[in-house]
Design a protein that fits this description.
This protein has an 8-stranded mixed β-sheet, with helices on both faces. It contains 14 helices and 14 strands. The chain is α/β, with parallel strands linked by helices. Helices cover about 40% and strands about 20% of the residues. The relative contact order is 0.12. Helix 7 packs antiparallel against helix 8. The protein starts with 15 loop residues before the first helix and ends with a strand. The protein folds into 2 domains: about 325 residues, Bira Bifunctional Protein, Domain 2 (BirA Bifunctional Protein, domain 2); about 60 residues, no CATH class.
Length: about 425
């Protein structure tokens, strides 16, 4: 019986054409974020199971790939449940590993610390088009800066990157978890119900105001509180006016400085941006992760059905490791979604250097072949990409493939 040739369900093989685009985007990530002072780090793909299941990852904690204990530590006969069989798992995101990393190395890192991290993460999700169980994430985070300068820098860096790889006309949506909580509290909802309410609110862009109203009713929430809550979403479309209107209505329910901070972020981003995009306050923005404590943001683009980047402030996560409250804020681009859009566009990686291919007649051997290889080596030393290959019988097929791979200079060498 032959061995399986397809990858494990939920995983995928990457062909050379896509790999070239992925490498190009990663180069742009390093170049662009590097200009903003972010430094690249790396964390292991395997984390302690108690870290992964510490109630900081929301729904992702249900999707952990757990790793069995090894050797004498694996005692099947005495195991009561899965927790007795596992001691580690594959990371489901990069934020929790970064928090552990920072807690472990804080004395060796600058403050504030601006981190760039790219790497594969793993979720035991149901595979579907564009969704895999192994996928690349790309995050930038600022730790140790409690001011809104962190949010401003993260938004400017991320939007600059998207512009660098050819995206324009996207929208940055911004809000604050403190706004969400203040709105729910002012409406009369119990704090224990906030998360359920936010899950329903998060569907606003899909089911509209009436749909949210119906779901609140179906979930058993008080009708008077629901109507009071929904009245908050009929404000002005202008971000500045909308923030001021809500601030006036919410009064003491909204923590001091929340509205002013959001307004300042929007103004500074508009003043300093180097790309074509809109930034707007969106009080319906929720972001799914339960670890967000303040500002939250998301980027949407018309050609894709959902967000292509998202993040926010998570000031409580590092504290779980150190006992010391540490300001933290991050932004993650949807690396796989961006690659999918580039592939759908038929994107070709711009290459300033000429790529040459030397097709050698199969009868060429000995000194003549050695001379050809030396010429190729000299060209490579000059910085050119050079492929040396035996000439195929079907030269047209071979040359078409080479042209498709970006080899514009194709030389044929005969005996």
């Amino acid at each position: 019986m032959s061995l399986p040739k397809k990858p494990v369900t939920g995983m995928k093989d990457i062909l050379p054409g896509e790999m070239e685009i992925r490498n190009y985007v990663q180069r742009k990530v390093r170049e662009t974020y590097g200009r903003f002072g972010f430094t690249e780090i790396e964390t292991p793909v395997v984390e302690h199971i108690e870290n992964l299941s510490s109630n900081q990852g929301g729904e992702n904690e249900k999707l952990i790939f757990r790793i069995l204990k090894r050797g004498e530590k694996l005692n099947l006969s005495e195991a009561r449940d899965a927790s007795d069989l596992t001691d580690s798992g594959l990371r489901y995101d990069l934020t929790l590993p970064l928090s552990r990393y920072y807690a472990n190395h804080v004395n060796d890192l600058p403050s504030p610390f601006k981190a760039l991290q790219m790497g594969n993460v793993f979720r035991a999700d149901r595979p579907q088009k564009g969704r895999f169980r192994q996928f690349m994430q790309c995050d930038i985070d600022i730790l140790g800066d409690a001011s809104n300068l962190a949010e401003i820098e993260l938004i400017l860096a991320t939007t600059s990157l998207l512009a660098e790889i050819g995206f324009t006309g996207f929208t940055v949506k911004i809000s604050d978890r403190r706004f969400l909580k203040a709105m729910a509290s002012w409406s009369g909802f119990d704090e224990k119900d906030f998360d359920r309410i936010f899950i329903i609110l998060d569907k606003m862009d899909k089911i509209g105001l009436d749909g949210v109203r119906q779901e609140l009713k179906d979930s058993g929430f008080d009708e008077e509180s629901s109507e009071k809550y929904l009245s908050l979403f009929n404000n002005s479309e202008n971000s500045g006016k909308r923030i001021e209107e809500l601030k006036t209505v919410l009064g003491d329910s909204l923590p001091e400085g929340t509205a002013e901070s959001l307004g300042e972020i929007i103004d500074c981003v508009n003043a300093a941006r180097s790309a074509e995009f809109d930034i707007s306050f969106d009080p319906t923005l929720v972001r799914g992760m339960s670890y967000y404590t303040g500002t939250i943001f998301e980027i949407t683009i018309d050609e894709f059905g959902s967000s292509i980047a998202g993040g926010g402030r998570y000031d409580g996560m590092v504290e779980r490791f150190t006992g010391v409250k540490t300001a933290a804020c991050g932004f993650s681009i949807g690396f796989e979604r961006i690659i999918t859009m580039l592939l759908d566009r038929g994107f070709k990686v711009p290459d300033e250097k000429e790529k040459s291919a030397i097709l050698v007649d199969k009868r060429i051997r000995g000194e003549r072949l050695a001379l050809i290889m030396k010429e190729a080596a000299d060209m490579r030393r000059d910085g050119r990409t050079v492929l040396v290959s035996k000439m195929m019988k079907n030269k047209k097929f071979q040359k078409d493939n080479l042209l498709g791979a970006g080899y514009t200079d194709i030389q044929e060498v005969f005996e």
